[in-house]
Design brief:
Blueprint (H helix, E strand, L loop, with lengths): L2 H28 L2 H6 L1 H30 L5 H26 L9 H29 L5
Helix pairs in contact: 1-3, 1-4, 3-4, 4-5
Length: about 140
């Protein structure tokens, strides 16, 4: 798949994940009230999952827009987008399945989602550091 097409996939996934985070958050606040009465800690977990999903959806959209609008086509930023998507799926989805459908087998994946979030953020940082280092090498001293 061409990088330009991949950027549009990242933008659409960011929008989808952001929208579903808003819907799930509203459902958690209004539709899952009775289930949270029985297990109050689930409210915290559910809210945390939707908050992190929304935050990382925004980051995914931001990085994809940067890739699309900028002249930069960095593999580090593309990899960051992939890790953000994996993070959303591996972190939030197991929490939702445990709380909504009482299926906890996917809960083992949650720490891997957190690692993916970390890697997504770290690759953005690595991209920035490499650009700083490369710009210093490319700048010629004035004569």
């Amino acid at each position: 798949m061409k990088k330009d097409n991949l950027i549009w996939v990242f933008l659409s996934l960011g929008g989808f994940f952001g929208g579903t985070a808003v819907l799930l958050s509203a459902w958690g606040a209004h539709g899952l009230e009775s289930s949270f009465m029985e297990t109050p800690t689930d409210r915290f977990s559910f809210n945390f999952a939707t908050d992190l999903q929304l935050l990382h959806s925004l980051l995914l959209v931001s990085v994809a827009l940067f890739l699309n609008l900028g002249k930069c086509r960095s593999n580090l930023l593309l990899a960051s987008c992939i890790f953000l998507i994996l993070g959303i799926l591996l972190f939030s989805l197991p929490i939702y399945t445990r709380i909504i459908w009482n299926y906890s087998e996917l809960s083992k994946l949650t720490p891997f989602g957190g690692v993916c979030f970390f890697l997504g953020w770290s690759l953005i940082s690595a991209f920035s550091i490499l650009n700083i280092l490369c710009s210093k090498v490319l700048i010629k001293p004035e004569s």
